[in-house]
Amino acid sequence: MAKLTIENLFHRELEVSDLSKSLLHHLHSHGVDWMHACGAKGRCTTCKAIVVGGLQHLNAPTAPELRYRQEGLLRENERLACQTTLQGDVCIRVPESGKLPHVQYSP
């Protein structure tokens, strides 16, 4: 069991039990609308999440994430929600580029 906190969604906390599923899966299964465009295949960066805390509780970066880092499209504290699994408590933020117009965000 792990806790996922979304800092700029009013510190919304999600309890995650199946640690084999992706971060994107958990967000959607808890009703959090999170941007994604390529069908969770790691082919784009639209599902990017900024990791505020607990980076050590995530799986190692995947090949697509490493490629995007080399291309300068993903920073060390950013992960693709479709490629990332939790292994413990993590706090993330929605990046400006991933904010949806119909969702209200907190500072």
TrEMBL record:
Tell me the organism's taxonomic lineage: Bacteria, Pseudomonadati, Bacteroidota, Cytophagia, Cytophagales
Name the source's superkingdom: Bacteria
Location of the 2Fe-2S ferredoxin-type domain? 1-98
Pfam families linked to this entry: Fer2
A GO term, aspect molecular function: iron-sulfur cluster binding
Name of this protein: Ferredoxin, 2Fe-2S
